[in-house]
């Protein structure tokens, strides 16, 4: 093997147009030996008002020879065009721009960074790690609580969820909806951070609707699964959304679980959330193939109730969604396993309208002011 060398390429964006320009470590360099990772700090000397984005990255080769050409000239092995359209004018790469390079010693793993594409940034994560090493106490995580389940029965899929929303130790909503609409034949239960689950499911639901408009066909469950797992995997678990996806399409009933990091399971029955262990105990002991609709609803309700009775993060009511071929049935507040048992003996009643405490009539009197005219001005 020959010596390892490195070339540096620069991605430049001008008002939305992206091009590629090549550079060596100097105008007279034939080869650039790769000893340590290097970071170039670039200063644009010509037409700086046209530049909106500039990025450098190292690419390593076993052996490479670069020609004697000015800095900024693409090498012969480049398959990229040497022209760029900038605001209606065409400029050539050779001698079009000049760069000043400043070398920094850095690890190669840190130098070979992907081109930033926007979206989620992990800069604050590195900042938080640095602050933690300096002794700054980080805020604690709040526990999220939910019990969501799903199972496949003989005609389709049944999904279930509780209706309690919490803010740490506080119950902030006793009757929230955790079964989200994805498509007419697909629904999704969400556990974790409520904002994340709603945002992710709404985003994928809109994409599925656009896909139906474009193709004129019914959405498939695997399409929604792919969009959800791809999105969650790209954020590496920072989007707190644990999902149970169920639906019926042309290939039959499907049930999937999607974890916050993007991993998925395909099972005949599934549970997620803080009360998932209690619900899974019910499923593993009583689930069987070929359940009827009524048997499936009863089993899902019993699993959700098990999560409600054994997990403080789950509570209130039981929501059930039954999906079959060409039909959907959403049973909102299907069961209330923990009704209010304490009623005050004083029996407080409140008026349905605002009570009038005082009535006072103030007559309006008309006040007329007469202004006497002064003497006429003499000419």
From TrEMBL:
Protein name: proteasome endopeptidase complex
Keyword Hydrolase: yes
Main localisation: nucleus
Lineage: Eukaryota, Viridiplantae, Streptophyta, Embryophyta, Tracheophyta
This enzyme's EC code(s): 3.4.25.1
Known partners and oligomeric status: Component of the 20S core complex of the 26S proteasome. The 26S proteasome is composed of a core protease (CP), known as the 20S proteasome, capped at one or both ends by the 19S regulatory particle (RP/PA700). The 20S proteasome core is composed of 28 subunits that are arranged in four stacked rings, resulting in a barrel-shaped structure. The two end rings are each formed by seven alpha subunits, and the two central rings are each formed by seven beta subunits. The catalytic chamber with the active sites is on the inside of the barrel.
Stored InterPro entries: Ntn_hydrolases_N, Pept_T1A_subB, Proteasome_bsu_CS, Proteasome_sua/b, Proteasome_suB-type
PANTHER family: METALLOPROTEASE TLDD, PROTEASOME SUBUNIT BETA TYPE-7
Keyword Ubl conjugation: no
Role description: The proteasome is a multicatalytic proteinase complex which is characterized by its ability to cleave peptides with Arg, Phe, Tyr, Leu, and Glu adjacent to the leaving group at neutral or slightly basic pH. The proteasome has an ATP-dependent proteolytic activity.
Residues the record marks as active site: 146 (nucleophile)
Pfam families in the cross-refs: Proteasome (PF00227)
Cellular compartments per GO CC: cytoplasm; nucleus; proteasome core complex
Annotated signal peptide: none
Any one GO MF annotation of this record: threonine-type endopeptidase activity
UniProt keywords, alphabetically: Cytoplasm, Hydrolase, Nucleus, Protease, Proteasome, Threonine protease
Top-rank taxon, per record: Eukaryota
């Amino acid at each position: 093997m020959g010596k390892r060398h490195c070339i540096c390429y620069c991605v430049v964006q001008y008002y939305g147009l992206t091009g590629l320009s090549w550079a060596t470590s100097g105008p007279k360099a034939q080869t650039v030996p790769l000893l340590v990772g290097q970071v170039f700090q670039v200063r644009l000397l010509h037409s700086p008002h046209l530049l909106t984005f500039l990025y450098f990255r190292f690419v390593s080769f076993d052996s490479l020879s670069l020609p004697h050409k000015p800095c900024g000239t693409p090498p012969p092995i480049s398959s990229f065009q040497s022209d760029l359209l900038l605001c209606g004018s065409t400029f050539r790469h050779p001698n079009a721009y000049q760069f000043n390079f400043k070398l920094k010693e850095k690890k190669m793993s840190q130098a070979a960074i992907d081109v930033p594409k926007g979206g989620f940034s992990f800069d604050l994560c590195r900042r938080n790690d640095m602050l933690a090493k300096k002794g700054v106490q980080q805020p604690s995580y709040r526990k999220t609580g939910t019990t969501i389940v799903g199972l496949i029965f003989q005609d389709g899929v049944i999904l279930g969820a509780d209706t309690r929303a919490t803010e740490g130790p506080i119950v902030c909503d006793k009757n929230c909806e955790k079964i989200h609409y994805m498509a007419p034949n697909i629904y999704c239960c969400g556990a974790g951070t409520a904002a994340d689950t709603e945002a992710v499911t709404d985003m994928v639901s809109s994409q599925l609707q656009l896909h139906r408009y474009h193709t004129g066909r019914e959405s498939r469950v695997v399409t929604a699964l792919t969009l959800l797992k791809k999105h969650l995997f790209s954020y590496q678990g920072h989007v707190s959304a644990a999902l149970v996806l169920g639906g019926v399409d042309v290939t039959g009933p499907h049930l999937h679980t999607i974890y916050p990091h993007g991993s998925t399971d395909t099972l005949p029955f599934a549970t997620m959330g803080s009360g998932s262990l209690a619900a899974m105990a019910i499923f593993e002991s009583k689930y069987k193939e070929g359940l009827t609709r009524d048997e499936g609803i009863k089993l899902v309700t019993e699993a959700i109730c098990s999560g409600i009775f054994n997990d403080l993060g789950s509570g209130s009511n039981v929501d059930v969604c039954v999906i079959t071929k060409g039909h959907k049935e959403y049973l909102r507040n299907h069961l209330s396993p923990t009704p209010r048992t304490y009623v005050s003996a004083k029996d407080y009643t409140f008026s349905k309208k605002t009570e009038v405490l005082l009535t006072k009539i103030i007559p309006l009197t008309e006040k007329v002011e007469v202004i006497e005219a002064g003497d006429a001005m003499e000419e």
